[in-house]
Input
Amino acid sequence: MINEGTVESASSLEKTARRLTDDIQSMSNYRALYNEIQRLVASSVVNKDDFKNSLVAALKDNGLETEIRNTVFHWARSRGSLHSRSVSHIQAADLSYLKKTQIQWERRIQKSLNSTCSELNIPLARVRSTADRDELAEKWNELSTYDIDLSQYRPLYAPKDFLDVLFSIRDPSFKKQLDELNWDFSHIQISVKTLAQLRRMYLELSQGLPLLGINPDMPATEGFPNLEAERTHIGEKVLNSNHAPIAQEFLKRGSPRALRGRIWSLVLGSVIKDNDIEYYEELKNMVLQYDIVIDKLIVMDVQLTARNDDQYFVFEDVLYKTMLCFSRDSEILAPVTTDRSAGSQVIHAVLQGKPATLENTLVFPPSGVIPFHGFTMYATPFCYLYDDPCAMYYTFRAFYLRYWFRLHTVSSHEQGIVALCLLFERLLQCHEPQLWAHFKNIHIQPIKIVFKWLMRGFSGHLPPEQLLYLWDLILGYDSLEIIPLLAVTILSFRKENLLQVNTQQNVEAVLADLSSLKVMPLLQLALLKE
Output
C-alpha cells in the first residue's frame, strides 16, 4: 500500500520538474542548448530503435549531459536563498518594517537623483547627438580620453549615508525612547550563526586543511613540488570535467591565480556564448545611443575610486565600459527588483524631446541600480581575472546578482547587509568582549569602523590577491558570512593597538592599512577549534 508521504513526495517532485522545465526555457542558454540537442537527435549517433539509451550515451559523449547538469545546478541556485535553513522562532518575527525602510530609502535616492537633474537643468535620459555618439564610439576602448564635465556632480550617497539609514531602523515591537539612537543591531530579530556553526560550515578552514593563500611552497602530495602545483593540476581536471558543483567545491581551498577566472565563470554560469557576445554589443549600442545622467555618476565614481587606487588605475578604461554597459542591462532589473528583499521602486523616464508615449518611456536606469560612491569597486577585482571585457562583464554581473546587491539593500535576508552587521556584532561581543567593552566605553559603534569593509566586500581595502582568495570563499561556500567573520578577525588581530586608542580617528588609523594581512591564515586561525 502506498503511504501518503510517498504520494506527497511524488507530487512535489512532479511540481519541481514542471517548474524546472518552464524556468529553463527562459534561461539565456536554453535556445543554444535546445538546438544542440535537436542536432544530436537528428544525427546518426542516436538510434531510433534504442532511442533512450543511445540519446543518453550521445549526450554524455558530446558533453551535453554536463551542460544540462550545470543548467539545473544554476537553476537550483537561483531558486533558493543562499542557504536554506530551518526557520526558527526568531525568524518568524515580523520583519516587514525592513522592507518599508528599503522602499523609503529607494525613494530618497530617486528624489536625490531627480533633484540633481532639476538643479543642473538636465534630463534623466536623452538621445545622444550624432557628434557625441561618434566621439564615444571612437573612444570606446579609451574612454578615459572622453571628456565630460563633472564639476557640478556629486555622488548620490556613500556607505556612511547608508549606515545612517540602517541605524535609523526601528523594530515597532522594540520598546525604546524615540530620540534614543540604536547603538547596535541587537533589536533586529534575524537569526545569525554562532562561531560554532560557522566552524561547521567552513570545514576546510576549521579542520586546518592545506589551503592556497597560506604558504604556496607548502608540501604537496603525489610528488608535486608544492601545493600551488597540486592545486593547479586538480583545477585543470575540474575545468576539463566542466561540472559547476565540482568547481564550487574546488574554490573552498582557494584557486590558483591562472585558473580563477575560468573556475568562477563555471561556478556562476557566466561562460560566454555567442548570444552573450551579441547582447553585450547591444548594451554597448545602448550606451552610444542614449545619454543618461547615471553615466556621469559612473564616470565620476571610477575617477574617485579606481583611478586613485594603485592596484586598479590601469583598468580605468575597461571599468568605464563595464559599468556603463551594466547600467543599460535590463536583465539585471528583474532579479534585483523581484527579490523578496528589494523595495521594487523604479523610476520611469521619458526621453528628452520625445512625446510621453510608452515607446519613449524607459525604466531608469534600465538596470534598476543607481550607483553610490564606491559602487565601481564591486567590479574592479574582476579586471585581474579576464582579458576580455565581455567575459569580465558577465562574471561581474553574475556575482553582483548573486551577492553584491544584498550589500546595499535593506532586507531581512540572512545574507543581507543587516544580517551581516548583526553577525559581526554578535561575533565581536561573544569572542572579543574586551574589545566590545572598550568600544562601548569610548562611545564608538564598532560597526561604524568596519561598515565600509562589509558594504564593499573588502574591495579596495585588501590587496587584490588577498581579496580574490576571500571571494573564492564567498563563491565556494555560497555565502557572504565570511566577510563579517574576517572583519572581526582583523579587529582581533589588531586588538592590542585598538585597546590603546580612544578616538574614532585613531581607531580608523590603526585599521587603515590592511596591505600586510593574509586572509586565509587569519580566517583559518579564527575558525580552528579552540
Remarks:
- Confidence is low (pLDDT under 50) at residues 84-91.
- Strands lie at 125-127, 290-292, 347-350, 361-364.
